[in-house]
Write a structure and sequence with these properties.
Blueprint (H helix, E strand, L loop, with lengths): L3 E2 L4 E6 L14 E4 L2 E4 L2 E4 L6 H9 L6 E3 L3 H14 L2 E6 L7 H9 L5 E5 L5 H16 L1 E2 H14 L1 E5 L4 H6 L15 E8 L2 E9 L1 H14 L7 E7 L5 H12 L4 E7 L2 H7 L4 E7 L1
Parallel strand pairs: 2-3, 2-7, 7-8, 13-14
Antiparallel strand pairs: 1-9, 4-5, 4-6, 10-11, 10-15, 11-12, 13-15
Helix pairs in contact: 2-3, 7-8
Length: 286
């Protein structure tokens, strides 16, 4: 049956890699399950017990990189029980299964809750955040379950997430670099750009200097959105807030009709693996 889903009857469970948290923390339809950030002997709930600025401070003085761990099945079970009391339908949207065991834990917990639908976003951070923002918008006007499934499939095909980072060192040391290991990012003045492709971190290119890196990010937008398509964008940073106004201005100069629906910071779990200083664009053409 093609049930109509709305904000009144549908809640969403997310994890703390769905950025930016500032866009979702006060939304009554959202329940967030945090991953853990492990710094030395201390464990913190991502976003709830540690901020990205605090994380970078701790990373600067740490002998080894922090690590992260996925939520437990029990954490998801508690979240699903709470949301199923409030809503007829629950969507549970998470970081790519290629990058984390979070979806597996959510799926195991969801076996006890038939009204919960698990969605692997096949992306992370702003990529997942933009999917959630668009679904919230669709729920506001109402959308059938069949149309929602079709939209999620479209987003997985056409959604894009590109990160400009000063260094690949944190990705390399954290073992999360995927196919991007073939790209040299440590040369003086070289700025690597990476994207999420098929659920994995993938090399997009490298630029000499930040200006050229921003040029490549704009070209990425132009290459992945047709002139007659509606364009929705999310902009994120990691301790680099000055990058967002520049990105926003240039995107709107390229596409005055673009809707900037998310602006904010990456979370700590993503920050552990990316390191300080990134700027990122999430986008979907519809």
């Amino acid at each position: 049956m093609n049930t109509i889903l709305t904000r009144r009857n549908t809640g969403i469970v997310i994890d703390s890699t769905c950025d930016p948290w500032s866009s979702f923390k006060d939304d009554p339809n959202i329940r967030m399950v945090p991953l853990k950030v492990l710094v030395g002997d201390e464990a913190y709930d991502d976003l709830l017990e540690i901020t990205i600025d605090q994380l970078y401070e701790k990373m600067a003085g740490a002998a080894s990189l922090p690590t992260t761990s996925q939520p437990t099945v029990e954490q998801f079970s508690v979240a699903y029980a709470e949301m199923c009391e409030r809503f007829e339908h629950v969507l549970s949207i998470h970081i790519s299964a290629e990058m984390s065991g979070t979806v597996r834990a959510a799926t195991e917990a969801g076996e006890r809750f038939p009204r919960v639908e698990i969605i692997d976003s096949r992306t992370v951070s702003g990529g997942a955040g933009l999917l959630i923002a668009r679904i919230l918008s669709l729920l506001t006007t109402g959308i059938g379950t069949d149309d929602l499934q079709a939209y999620v499939a479209h987003y997985k095909r056409r959604g894009r997430f590109l990160i400009h980072t000063p260094s690949l060192e944190h990705l390399r040391r954290g073992g999360r670099i995927g196919r991007a290991q073939s790209m040299v990012g440590g040369l003086l003045g070289i700025h690597p750009l990476i994207e999420l492709q098929d659920g994995l971190v993938t090399a997009y290119g490298k630029a000499r200097g930040e200006r050229r890196a921003l040029d490549m990010m704009l070209q990425y937008v132009a290459d992945n959105a047709g002139p007659t398509e509606r364009l929705f964008v999310g902009l994120l940073h990691g301790a680099n807030p000055d990058a967002l106004p520049v990105l926003k201005q240039r995107i709107l100069a390229l596409r005055p009709d673009a809707q900037i629906v998310l602006e904010g910071s990456i979370g700590c779990v993503v920050g552990v693996h990316i390191g300080p200083g990134p700027a990122a664009i999430a986008m979907i053409a519809e």
